[in-house]
Structures are given as C-alpha cells and as structure tokens.
Amino acid sequence: xxxxxxxxxxxxxxxxxxxxxxxxxxxxxxxxxxxxxxxxxxxxxxxxxxxxxxxxxxxxxxxxxxxxxxxxxxxxxxxxx
Length: 81
Fold this sequence. Notes:
Blueprint: E1 2-5, E2 14-20, H1 24-32, E3 40-46, E4 53-57, E5 60-64, H2 66-69, E6 72-77
Antiparallel strand pairs: 1-6, 2-3, 2-6, 3-4, 4-5
C-alpha cells in the first residue's frame, strides 16, 4: 500500500485518510466535512477541467478542490469500493 495525497488518486481508486499537511485552519474545516483520520474514501470523478473532484465517504458525496485535496494524506488501497 502506498502513501500519497488525495489529489493524486485517480477516478475509481480508494484510500484511507492518514492525516493532513499545511495550515491548521484547513485541518479543522476538513474534519468538519467528515474527512477525519481512518475514514475510507472513494474517488468518484473529476470535473471536466480536473477541478473539483468528487469523493464518496461515510455514505455521501463531497466535492473538494484539488488544492485542498493535496493537503490530505491517504493510504492508497487496492481494489474498487
């Protein structure tokens, strides 16, 4: 299993959130959205120009800017959710 950032995952890939990089204010906002350590996520698709990306976590879909996704550390999992 490989550690990377969320923005590096491709559509159809899944991973588990390990932590965050960057400003602490962003960490709080991401946690409020449900992006907490240990959460499994699935990358559903990207907008036509690549930003934002749509992910599925905890039973709902979330659109996230790639800039914010680049601050989320994930462990890339094998297989499709």
